[in-house]
């Protein structure tokens, strides 16, 4: 899994990830309302943790249980929570590597708006200088559920689930898909605000909130690369 942001509810600490990261079928153009997933309670390996986390929420399973029929929601609601074992809570830092933040949950902005992300796919062979990303919004679609972004470097397999920040350092999205259109090498990013609202309205996680970063947000790509 690739986590995006850290979330809290009471004393519980969670890592966000894409729901499709626990999918059991074809993850290309997957529709969450009819795609298979590992069950709630699945144990998840977490880098840097002494014990495995536990999958406790999955938007795909929630939509299927609810009988969701909205095509945009089925296509783009791609969010899950992994509960951190209490023994590892002290090892969790909510700051986004390189850029700091997040400063809260926010909107993506219009076309051409600047976005930031950090991915650590194993396909980069450990070259962390390629992990920080800066880019722009190329398209907003799916009734606001999906945002197509173009970043340098683009997200690649293994980056799925990583988080995106807007120009103010607010968390707005979760990397969901690799895309060809409208821009080759672009990525589809699910809208975090809508995904969180859906989770709160349709599960026991109504009190989950984003944990703000302990480092101030710094939009310098050069600084993030040097820090990587």
Describe this structure in words.
The structure is a single chain. The chain has 228 residues and is α+β, with helices and mostly antiparallel strands. It has two domains: 6-93 and 195-210, no CATH class; 114-192 and 212-227, Thrombin, subunit H (Beta Barrel). Helices cover 14% and strands 28% of the residues. It is built from four helices and twelve strands. A six-stranded antiparallel beta sheet has the order 3-4-5-2-1-12. Strands 6-7-8-11-10-9 form a six-stranded antiparallel beta barrel. β1 (6-9) and β2 form a beta hairpin. The chain is globular, with a radius of gyration of 16 Å. The two termini are 20 Å apart.
**Strand arrangement in the largest pleated sheet:** 3-4-5-2-1-12
Main beta sheet: strand number and arrangement? 6 strands, antiparallel
In helices, the fraction of residues equals 10-25%
Label the structural class: alpha+beta
The proportion of residues in beta strands is 25-35%
Distance separating the two termini: 20 Å
- Characterize the overall form: globular
Instruction: Flag low-confidence runs.
Output: none
pLDDT averaged over residues:
89
Number of domains: 2
> Helix count?
4
Could you tell me the number of beta strands?
A: 12
Which characteristics define this entry?
14% helix; single chain; Thrombin, subunit H; 6-stranded antiparallel beta barrel; 228 residues; alpha+beta; 6-stranded antiparallel β-sheet
Short description:
It contains four helices and twelve strands; from the N terminus they run ββββααβββββββαβα. The protein has 228 residues and is α+β, with helices and mostly antiparallel strands.
